[in-house]
Structure formats: C-alpha cells, structure tokens
Amino acid sequence: MRLLLVRHGETAYNAQGRYQGQTDLPLNQLGRQQAALLASRLAGEEIHAIYTSDLRRAAETAALIAVPHRLSVHGEPRLREMSFGAWERLTYAEISERDPQALAAWQADPLGAAPPGGESLAELAARVQSAFDSIVALYPEQTVLLVAHGGPLRVLLCLALGLPPEAQWRFRLDTASLSELCCYTGDAILMRLNDTHHLSAQPGHPRERRHADGEPRPRASGEDG
Questions:
Q1: Class for domain 2-208, per CATH?
Q2: Once rounded to an integer, what is the mean pLDDT over residues 117-131?
Q3: Is 8 a catalytic residue?
Q4: What is the CA radius of gyration of the chain?
Q5: Which residue out of 149, 197, 205, 211 is catalytically annotated?
Q6: pTM (predicted TM-score)
Q7: pLDDT-based confidence at 216, cuts 50/70/90?
Q8: Is position 205 annotated as part of the catalytic site?
Q9: Which DSSP string corresponds to 115-165?
C-alpha cells in the first residue's frame, strides 16, 4: 500500500501559535492557497481513495485535492487532532502561566497524562492505529491519501515505522506538507517526509514561519518540532 500523508493548510491558530486541537477552524487565506498548490501538485498522481479528518481545516484541504481525481472524500473522526481540552485556543506561554502543574505533568508523561479535559498521547495513538488498520485492510495494494493534522500524522509515522508514539516529536510536519509511506505486511518504508517544495514560491512559505505553527511539544514550546 502506498500512503500519501498530507497535513492541512494553515489556519489562524497555526499562524498565532495557539493550541488548536479539536477546535474546528477553517483554513485562512494562506491555508487555502497552500491547499490549492498542493492539489495542483497531486493532480497527476494515481490515487484510489481519499480519507480526511472531519475537522474543517482538513476537510477543506482534502476537498481541493479531490477535485481533479473525481473522488469522494471519506470523513474519518479517528484522524482528528489530539484533544487539548482546556488548553485549546491558548498559547504555550499562556498555559505555562495559567496551568503550570498540569503542564509539568504532561511534559513528564505525555503518553499517560492528558491536558485537563483532553486526551493522552496513548489515547491518540490507539485511535490512529485503529483508523490505519481499517484503511490498510480496505486498500492493501492501492494508493490512499490521508489528510489530517500534525499530531495524528506524526503518531501514524511512528506506528508504521515501529517507533514509540513519544518519538513523534522527532518528525516535523509543516502545514500543507506531503509525506509518503510504502506499507507492507508488518513493515513500512518512509519514502519522503515533510515535502513542501510545491509551496516554495509562495510568500509566507512554512519554513519562513517556523515559530508560528501552533503544534505544541511537551518538552519545548508551542512550535511544531
């Protein structure tokens, strides 16, 4: 199975460095431009199915990609971003000031601890694994495109490559980036990671906005690692 992994285009919270989680924001203007550029790049690919998180920022990205392929898009709630509960809409600095004890607990044990009212990394990994297994079973020899979020996509990479979920912060996935896995029975090969060359001529290209990504790391800051 060939698996194309797309992170959604930029939103206002990505640009502001806020924890977004399952807060359902649309793409901003830059995000729509990013999604359109990625759709143009993927127009010539042979894609057999498209799955997306049902949150708007992912669904809008997937809808643009699907047009030239004349494919319906399958909404998949198990591909939603990790829920950050009470921390959603806040920056890392705001959380550090308002909720330092809970933040310290999460930093010490992201697999088992959860933000107040949110979910743990273990819970995220369980639902991502369930979605991954379901999709692989349906399309074992075909090309499937997944549009989702930084957290679930990084965790999926870990699960496919035999890494612990906590290793997800070793991967960087910019908005509207493209990664690729070739999946075999019990094994996978990473073919490309965080490819954004389709955005290179665009003002505000992700690599010019490294500190405004809105993807938190438990051991560092609010930027995407």
A1: alpha beta
A2: 98
A3: yes
A4: 16
A5: 149
A6: 0.92
A7: low
A8: no
A9: -TTS--HHHHHHHHHHHHHHHHHH-TTSEEEEEE-HHHHHHHHHHHHT--G
